[in-house]
């Protein structure tokens, strides 16, 4: 870990430390901001004591980060264009990192202070979009090129539809439970059970399901939200010390050969489909002279890109053998080839079997660029896990009592948590970031409607306003901070 500071001047080294501290602070805040939602139902229903719930939730968040992979992490990283990610060992790169982190932390702390279940995911993504758009304006780049719009749309759709799905599915699940077990004690609120049955805790099986589902929500929260922290740290490392992190320098000779072989097979794949892809990729028409001074990912430059990659990787058994500029160039080649392959894979006239082969080649191409050092994963897991153990009270009260006009029943807690687990788990499979906050709180709202408990207008209005405002506010904050800081760094 500490070798990343070797060769850095004092200013860059201090900036790197501060940037890493900002990311870990963001994850710490994310822990007590978002994870309060994961334990809200289990604490409110008295299925577990607050102390035990937050400790166990912290542990399961830690495990979720540790075992979650990096798919969601790089979905976050790839929101920004390749040029901004690579060419940032400058004051503008540092401005980018600090602007998006400062904007995200400011909004997260503000909504937490007022007990509003706002989304850290929305905040982070909005901040990244703000920096990308501001960078485009500052450098007179078309806004269409300022961010990766394809990835932004995919993520945006997942963030919009996951709360709607949570609302509908949780409500339907509660209706199913009421139909199957109409007289069950699971339909009582904690207050009713205490006053009528004179018992403090839920019935055994209800309590067991509540506890297990809460810990599962914590695990999938860690595996999804924790990856956002991993993506942020990789964004910082790639931005400030690119030579050390644009490629996985610990890649084995076999992994590098697999990447090189993937490029060769990709070349063969395109030649095999030259009739349908010839015009899109300008096959047989492009040469090295077509490569622009400022590298841009253009499908018509695919042949030149493949030639450049194979030339740079020829005889290479370790990425440490490449100089700094060559490492950056290899990453550019790989990212652009992957981007073009993704576009080709969406063509309707390509057979499904060929699309599957292309997907495998994409994974081999990016296997040494989409990674995270183990110390990064551990640091994020610790920050998120420790953050879980503080600051949970404000949001627990909102989720448990202030969404509906009546208190939450055990069945409602079970339905909301099972829905959140399923929704976030599916998002992890497809490497899409979602909001634990919005999925769970919308799930609770869905059960309130299904139970005909009614909704508290003021709280629901605050949650919806936070949902609507988070993206534009975080975009504006990050863009404004980036514009201001860019003026100072020139």
Automatic annotation (TrEMBL):
Signal peptide: none annotated. It is a multi-pass membrane protein. GO terms for cellular component: plasma membrane. It is found in: Cell membrane; Membrane. The chain crosses the membrane at residues 12-32, 53-80, 92-114, 121-138, 158-183, 204-223, 229-247, 371-392, 463-484. InterPro entries: Phos_transporter. Pfam families: PHO4. It catalyses: phosphate(in) + H(+)(in) = phosphate(out) + H(+)(out). Keywords: Cell membrane, Membrane, Phosphate transport, Symport, Transmembrane, Transmembrane helix, Transport. GO terms for biological process: phosphate ion transmembrane transport. One of its GO terms (molecular function) is symporter activity. Belongs to the inorganic phosphate transporter (PiT) (TC 2.A.20) family. Pit subfamily. This is Phosphate transporter.
């Amino acid at each position: 870990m500490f070798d990343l500071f070797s060769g850095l001047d004092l200013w860059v080294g201090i900036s790197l430390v501060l940037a890493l501290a900002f990311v870990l602070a963001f994850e710490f805040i994310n822990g007590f901001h978002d994870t309060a939602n994961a334990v809200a139902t289990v604490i409110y229903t008295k299925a577990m004591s607050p102390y035990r719930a937050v400790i166990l939730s912290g542990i399961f968040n830690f495990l979720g980060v540790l075992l979650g992979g990096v798919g969601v992490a790089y979905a976050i990283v790839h929101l920004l264009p390749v040029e901004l990610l690579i060419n940032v060992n400058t004051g503008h790169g540092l401005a980018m990192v600090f602007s998006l982190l400062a904007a995200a932390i400011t909004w997260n702390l503000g909504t937490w202070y007022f007990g509003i279940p706002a989304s850290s995911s929305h905040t982070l993504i909005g901040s990244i979009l703000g920096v990308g758009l501001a960078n485009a304006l500052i450098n007179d780049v078309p806004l269409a090129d300022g961010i990766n719009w394809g990835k932004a749309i995919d993520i945006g759709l997942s963030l919009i539809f996951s709360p709607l799905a949570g609302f509908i599915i949780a409500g339907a699940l509660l209706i199913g439970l009421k139909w199957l077990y109409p007289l069950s004690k699971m339909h009582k609120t904690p207050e009713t059970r205490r006053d009528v049955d004179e018992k403090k805790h839920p019935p055994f099986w209800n309590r067991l399901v509540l506890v297990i589902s809460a810990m599962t929500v914590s695990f999938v929260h860690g595996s999804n939200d924790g990856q956002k922290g991993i993506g942020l740290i990789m964004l910082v490392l790639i931005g400030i010390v690119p030579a050390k992190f644009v490629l996985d320098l610990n890649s084995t000779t076999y992994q590098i050969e697999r990447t090189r072989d993937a490029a060769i097979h990709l070349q063969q794949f395109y030649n095999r489909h030259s009739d349908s892809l010839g015009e899109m990729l300008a096959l047989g028409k492009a040469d090295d002279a077509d490569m622009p001074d400022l590298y841009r990912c253009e499908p018509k430059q695919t042949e030149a890109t493949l030639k450049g990659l194979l030339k740079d990787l020829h005889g290479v058994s370790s990425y440490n053998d490449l100089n700094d500029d060559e490492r950056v160039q290899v990453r550019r080649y790989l990212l652009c080839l992957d981007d073009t392959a993704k576009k080709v894979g969406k063509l309707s006239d390509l057979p499904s079997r060929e699309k599957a082969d292309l997907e495998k080649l994409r994974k081999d191409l990016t296997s040494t660029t989409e990674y995270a050092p183990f110390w990064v994963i551990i640091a994020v897991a610790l920050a998120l896990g420790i953050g879980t153990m503080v600051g949970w009270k404000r949001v627990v009260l909102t989720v448990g009592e202030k969404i509906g006009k009546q208190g939450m029943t055990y069945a409602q807690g079970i339905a909301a948590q099972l829905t959140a687990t399923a929704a976030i788990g599916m998002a992890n499979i497809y490497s899409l970031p979602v909001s634990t906050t919005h999925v769970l709180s919308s799930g609770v709202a869905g059960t309130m409607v299904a139970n005909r408990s009614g909704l508290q207008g003021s709280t629901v209005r605050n949650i919806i306003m936070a949902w609507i405002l988070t993206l534009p506010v975080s975009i504006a904050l990050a863009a404004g901070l980036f514009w201001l800081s860019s003026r100072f760094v020139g």
